[in-house]
């Protein structure tokens, strides 16, 4: 169970990036639909559980060291290479966005120059990636319970200090900008978008686990925690929609209203989530081309990390931002492929035989 919890927590830590933890994504995909956003959160939870379970077990069955083997397995000869290229591109792109985002966050919270803030995140990311895979998973997983605690405090505060009636809150929530036309599509798009970013690391993490039940349980626990976070953040923001309407960082606004110290703790959590995402994305990108035990791995970490820093300074984030919507469609393709793979119900021993024959 301990290993399953580590996998689940690391999966959560990777997906819960700055947009998630700040409440902005939850606002657009769930809270903007009012009370129905809660139902959307439950639907997203079920999707995360099923997909987390499926990809984690596939990672174990194929003993994957990168996402490539699993993507080719579920995508086949024609779709597999396309999905592989797109996922690989987005892994590096999201990592660059995190580097740039950390610079802005350091400046906003601590008044540090954006270039210095980005460099701090780059150095931390590179140092982390020089560790072995187990230590990387443990570090990413450590931050998740901390974030859960902060979010729970915000939820309790929001509910017990709610000044609006449910109909009033529902009306105000529905005025907020939405990322989808309805709550059903909002839930699917949100899961799809995050799956495109998070599936690669979940596959790599599960590839080092021998017991598919342990890996599958890790995927399930990750899905439950992700869904729980979505619902908790949604309810907290719904209860205080009159306070955080229009805010760029809703959860940070709620935290600062409780107490300045809680605001600082939430800000640290945001930086932690950015760090988690940067580490997970860059690691998944590098191991797609270079094995962790290769002599080229460590030099590549430094070179690619520094390249990411340079790109974060020259406006590369604008390019990545424009193609983020494509990640949603990529995620839909992964979801469909995962469902097909699940229905085929291939036996582990057959998969293992086929993999052994290929190497």
Automatic annotation (TrEMBL):
InterPro entries: YkvI-like (IPR038728). It comes from the Bacteria. Keywords: Membrane, Transmembrane, Transmembrane helix. The chain crosses the membrane at residues 33-56, 77-100, 112-132, 139-160, 180-205, 217-241, 261-287, 299-317, 323-343. This is Membrane protein YkvI. It comes from Caldibacillus thermoamylovorans.
């Amino acid at each position: 169970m301990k290993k399953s919890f580590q996998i689940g927590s690391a999966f959560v830590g990777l997906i819960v990036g700055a947009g998630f933890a700040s409440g902005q994504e939850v606002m657009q995909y769930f809270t903007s639909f009012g009370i129905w956003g809660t139902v959307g959160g439950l639907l997203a939870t079920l999707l995360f559980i099923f997909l987390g379970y499926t990809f984690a077990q596939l990672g174990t069955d194929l003993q994957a060291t990168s996402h490539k083997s699993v993507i080719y397995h579920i995508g086949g000869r024609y779709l597999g290479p396309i999905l592989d290229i797109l996922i690989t591109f987005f892994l590096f792109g999201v990592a660059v966005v995190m580097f740039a985002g950390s610079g802005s966050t350091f400046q906003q919270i601590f008044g540090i120059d954006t270039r210095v803030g980005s460099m701090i995140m780059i150095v931390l990311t590179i140092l982390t990636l020089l560790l072995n895979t187990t230590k990387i998973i443990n570090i990413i997983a450590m931050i998740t319970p901390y974030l859960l605690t902060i979010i729970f405090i915000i939820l309790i505060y929001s509910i017990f200090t709610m000044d609006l009636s449910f109909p009033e809150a529902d009306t105000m929530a529905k005025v907020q900008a939405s990322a989808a036309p309805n709550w059903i599509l909002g839930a699917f798009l949100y899961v799809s978008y995050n799956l495109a970013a998070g599936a690669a690391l979940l596959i790599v993490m599960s590839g080092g686990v021998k017991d598919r039940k342990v890996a599958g349980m890790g995927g399930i626990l990750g899905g439950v925690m992700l869904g729980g976070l979505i619902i908790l953040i949604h309810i907290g923001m719904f209860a205080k929609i009159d306070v955080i309407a229009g805010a760029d960082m809703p959860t940070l606004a709620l935290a600062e209203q409780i107490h300045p110290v809680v605001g600082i703790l939430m800000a640290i959590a945001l930086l932690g989530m950015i760090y988690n995402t940067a580490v997970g994305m860059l690691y998944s990108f590098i191991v797609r081309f270079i094995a962790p035990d290769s002599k080229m791995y460590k030099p590549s970490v430094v070179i690619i990390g520094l390249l990411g820093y340079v790109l974060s300074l020259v406006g590369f984030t604008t390019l990545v931002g424009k193609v983020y919507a494509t990640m949603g469609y990529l995620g839909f393709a992964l979801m469909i492929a995962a469902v097909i793979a699940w229905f085929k119900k291939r036996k582990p021993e057959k998969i293992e035989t086929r993999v052994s024959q290929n190497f």
